[in-house]
From TrEMBL:
InterPro entries in alphabetical order: DSBA-like_thioredoxin_dom, Thioredoxin-like_sf
DSBA-like thioredoxin domain span: 8-186
Lineage start: Bacteria, Pseudomonadati, Pseudomonadota, Gammaproteobacteria, Lysobacterales
Entry protein name: DsbA family protein
Any one Pfam family match given in the protein's UniProt record, by short name: DSBA
Origin: domain of life: Bacteria
TM region(s), chain numbering: none
Length: 212
Protein backbone atom coordinates (compact mmCIF):
# COMPACT_ATOMS: atom_id res chain seq x y z
CA UNK A 1 0.00 0.00 0.00
CA UNK A 2 1.10 3.53 -0.80
CA UNK A 3 -1.77 5.63 0.49
CA UNK A 4 -2.44 8.88 2.29
CA UNK A 5 -4.92 9.03 5.15
CA UNK A 6 -6.48 12.46 5.55
CA UNK A 7 -7.61 12.69 9.17
CA UNK A 8 -10.14 15.48 9.73
CA UNK A 9 -10.58 16.21 13.42
CA UNK A 10 -10.99 18.75 16.20
CA UNK A 11 -8.71 18.54 19.26
CA UNK A 12 -11.67 19.01 21.64
CA UNK A 13 -13.81 16.37 19.94
CA UNK A 14 -14.42 13.48 22.35
CA UNK A 15 -15.17 11.11 19.46
CA UNK A 16 -11.79 11.98 17.92
CA UNK A 17 -10.16 11.09 21.24
CA UNK A 18 -12.11 7.83 21.19
CA UNK A 19 -10.83 7.07 17.70
CA UNK A 20 -7.18 7.74 18.57
CA UNK A 21 -6.13 4.09 19.10
CA UNK A 22 -7.75 3.06 15.80
CA UNK A 23 -6.02 5.88 13.90
CA UNK A 24 -2.67 4.82 15.36
CA UNK A 25 -3.48 1.25 14.36
CA UNK A 26 -4.07 2.32 10.76
CA UNK A 27 -0.60 3.81 10.61
CA UNK A 28 0.96 0.68 12.09
CA UNK A 29 -0.55 -1.37 9.26
CA UNK A 30 2.18 0.08 7.03
CA UNK A 31 2.33 1.88 3.70
CA UNK A 32 0.19 4.76 4.92
CA UNK A 33 1.16 8.39 5.37
CA UNK A 34 -0.97 10.64 7.54
CA UNK A 35 -2.19 14.18 6.91
CA UNK A 36 -3.83 15.74 9.96
CA UNK A 37 -6.34 18.44 9.10
CA UNK A 38 -8.12 20.31 11.91
CA UNK A 39 -11.57 21.48 10.82
CA UNK A 40 -12.01 24.32 13.31
CA UNK A 41 -15.36 22.84 14.33
CA UNK A 42 -15.19 24.16 17.89
CA UNK A 43 -13.12 27.29 17.27
CA UNK A 44 -14.06 30.78 16.14
CA UNK A 45 -17.82 30.86 15.68
CA UNK A 46 -17.97 27.23 16.85
CA UNK A 47 -16.65 28.10 20.33
CA UNK A 48 -19.23 28.38 23.10
CA UNK A 49 -19.59 28.91 26.86
CA UNK A 50 -19.29 25.77 28.97
CA UNK A 51 -22.63 26.07 30.78
CA UNK A 52 -24.40 23.48 32.94
CA UNK A 53 -26.49 22.02 30.13
CA UNK A 54 -23.58 21.63 27.73
CA UNK A 55 -21.33 20.17 30.45
CA UNK A 56 -23.96 17.56 31.30
CA UNK A 57 -24.41 16.70 27.63
CA UNK A 58 -20.64 16.41 27.13
CA UNK A 59 -20.16 14.12 30.15
CA UNK A 60 -22.99 11.85 29.01
CA UNK A 61 -21.46 11.64 25.56
CA UNK A 62 -18.00 11.05 27.02
CA UNK A 63 -19.25 8.10 29.06
CA UNK A 64 -20.68 6.54 25.91
CA UNK A 65 -17.34 6.99 24.14
CA UNK A 66 -15.50 5.40 27.07
CA UNK A 67 -17.81 2.37 27.01
CA UNK A 68 -17.30 1.92 23.27
CA UNK A 69 -13.55 2.50 23.06
CA UNK A 70 -12.02 2.13 26.51
CA UNK A 71 -10.57 5.64 26.26
CA UNK A 72 -10.61 7.19 29.73
CA UNK A 73 -12.47 10.34 30.79
CA UNK A 74 -11.39 11.05 34.36
CA UNK A 75 -13.11 12.67 37.31
CA UNK A 76 -10.35 15.31 37.20
CA UNK A 77 -11.55 16.25 33.73
CA UNK A 78 -15.15 16.28 34.88
CA UNK A 79 -14.40 18.48 37.90
CA UNK A 80 -11.68 20.81 36.56
CA UNK A 81 -12.84 21.23 32.97
CA UNK A 82 -16.55 20.51 32.70
CA UNK A 83 -17.10 21.97 36.17
CA UNK A 84 -15.34 25.29 35.46
CA UNK A 85 -17.81 27.93 34.30
CA UNK A 86 -15.00 30.39 33.56
CA UNK A 87 -13.81 28.31 30.61
CA UNK A 88 -14.95 28.41 27.03
CA UNK A 89 -15.34 25.32 24.93
CA UNK A 90 -12.87 26.59 22.33
CA UNK A 91 -10.48 24.46 20.31
CA UNK A 92 -8.80 27.44 18.65
CA UNK A 93 -5.68 27.51 20.86
CA UNK A 94 -5.08 23.74 20.61
CA UNK A 95 -5.57 23.91 16.84
CA UNK A 96 -2.91 26.62 16.56
CA UNK A 97 -0.60 24.57 18.79
CA UNK A 98 -0.89 21.61 16.44
CA UNK A 99 -0.26 23.82 13.43
CA UNK A 100 2.93 25.02 15.13
CA UNK A 101 4.00 21.37 15.41
CA UNK A 102 3.08 20.75 11.76
CA UNK A 103 5.41 23.60 10.73
CA UNK A 104 8.35 22.47 12.85
CA UNK A 105 8.18 18.69 13.36
CA UNK A 106 5.27 17.40 11.26
CA UNK A 107 6.07 13.74 11.92
CA UNK A 108 5.20 14.34 15.60
CA UNK A 109 1.84 16.06 15.15
CA UNK A 110 -0.22 12.96 15.96
CA UNK A 111 1.86 12.48 19.11
CA UNK A 112 1.19 16.11 20.08
CA UNK A 113 -2.54 15.68 19.45
CA UNK A 114 -2.66 12.59 21.64
CA UNK A 115 -0.76 14.45 24.38
CA UNK A 116 -3.25 17.35 24.24
CA UNK A 117 -6.16 14.92 24.43
CA UNK A 118 -4.59 13.09 27.41
CA UNK A 119 -3.87 16.39 29.16
CA UNK A 120 -7.54 17.37 28.89
CA UNK A 121 -9.47 14.13 29.32
CA UNK A 122 -7.23 12.32 31.80
CA UNK A 123 -5.14 14.96 33.61
CA UNK A 124 -7.87 17.60 33.65
CA UNK A 125 -5.57 20.36 32.36
CA UNK A 126 -6.77 23.54 30.68
CA UNK A 127 -5.79 23.13 27.03
CA UNK A 128 -7.63 26.35 26.17
CA UNK A 129 -4.64 28.19 27.68
CA UNK A 130 -1.78 29.01 25.31
CA UNK A 131 0.63 28.92 28.25
CA UNK A 132 -0.49 25.41 29.22
CA UNK A 133 -0.19 24.26 25.61
CA UNK A 134 3.29 25.77 25.24
CA UNK A 135 4.41 24.01 28.43
CA UNK A 136 3.00 20.74 27.10
CA UNK A 137 4.91 21.12 23.83
CA UNK A 138 8.12 21.88 25.70
CA UNK A 139 7.61 18.77 27.84
CA UNK A 140 7.50 16.77 24.60
CA UNK A 141 10.74 18.37 23.43
CA UNK A 142 8.90 20.41 20.79
CA UNK A 143 10.65 23.63 21.74
CA UNK A 144 10.43 25.29 18.32
CA UNK A 145 6.67 24.70 18.19
CA UNK A 146 6.31 26.04 21.74
CA UNK A 147 8.22 29.18 20.77
CA UNK A 148 5.98 29.73 17.76
CA UNK A 149 2.87 29.23 19.88
CA UNK A 150 4.08 31.67 22.52
CA UNK A 151 4.40 34.39 19.86
CA UNK A 152 1.94 33.58 17.06
CA UNK A 153 2.93 35.38 13.86
CA UNK A 154 1.35 35.79 10.43
CA UNK A 155 3.03 32.63 9.13
CA UNK A 156 1.57 30.47 11.91
CA UNK A 157 -1.91 31.99 11.78
CA UNK A 158 -1.98 31.83 7.99
CA UNK A 159 -0.93 28.18 7.98
CA UNK A 160 -3.56 27.44 10.61
CA UNK A 161 -6.30 29.02 8.51
CA UNK A 162 -5.11 27.22 5.38
CA UNK A 163 -5.29 23.84 7.12
CA UNK A 164 -8.81 24.49 8.38
CA UNK A 165 -9.90 25.69 4.95
CA UNK A 166 -8.54 22.54 3.31
CA UNK A 167 -10.31 20.36 5.90
CA UNK A 168 -13.60 22.18 5.38
CA UNK A 169 -13.28 21.86 1.60
CA UNK A 170 -12.79 18.10 1.92
CA UNK A 171 -15.81 17.85 4.21
CA UNK A 172 -17.95 19.63 1.62
CA UNK A 173 -16.55 17.49 -1.20
CA UNK A 174 -17.40 14.24 0.57
CA UNK A 175 -20.58 15.41 2.30
CA UNK A 176 -19.06 14.74 5.72
CA UNK A 177 -21.06 16.26 8.58
CA UNK A 178 -18.80 15.91 11.58
CA UNK A 179 -15.51 14.67 12.97
CA UNK A 180 -13.65 12.44 12.98
CA UNK A 181 -13.67 12.02 9.21
CA UNK A 182 -11.21 9.68 7.52
CA UNK A 183 -10.48 9.96 3.81
CA UNK A 184 -8.00 7.63 2.12
CA UNK A 185 -6.28 8.59 -1.11
CA UNK A 186 -4.08 6.71 -3.56
CA UNK A 187 -3.01 8.67 -6.60
CA UNK A 188 -6.01 10.56 -7.94
CA UNK A 189 -8.50 8.28 -6.20
CA UNK A 190 -9.94 9.18 -2.80
CA UNK A 191 -12.74 7.71 -0.74
CA UNK A 192 -14.41 8.14 2.62
CA UNK A 193 -13.89 5.45 5.25
CA UNK A 194 -16.68 4.37 7.61
CA UNK A 195 -15.19 5.80 10.80
CA UNK A 196 -17.81 4.08 13.01
CA UNK A 197 -15.60 1.02 12.82
CA UNK A 198 -12.95 2.98 14.71
CA UNK A 199 -14.99 2.55 17.89
CA UNK A 200 -16.40 -0.95 17.79
CA UNK A 201 -14.03 -2.87 15.49
CA UNK A 202 -10.74 -1.15 14.61
CA UNK A 203 -9.69 -4.21 12.58
CA UNK A 204 -12.62 -3.54 10.24
CA UNK A 205 -11.26 -0.04 9.68
CA UNK A 206 -7.88 -1.49 8.69
CA UNK A 207 -9.65 -3.81 6.25
CA UNK A 208 -11.41 -0.83 4.69
CA UNK A 209 -8.08 0.94 4.28
CA UNK A 210 -6.45 -2.10 2.70
CA UNK A 211 -9.35 -2.52 0.28
CA UNK A 212 -9.49 1.12 -0.73
Amino acid sequence: MDKTLHYLFDPLCGWCYGAAPAVSGLLESGGVSLELLPTGLFSGEGARPLDDAFAAYAWSNDQRIERLTGQRFSEKYRDRILGDRRQLFDSGPATVALTAVSLTEPARELEALEAIQHARYVDGNDVISLATLADLLRALGLDDAAAKLSHPDAELLGANQARMSRAQALMREFGARGVPTLIVGSGAKRQLLDHAAAYSNPRALISQLEAA
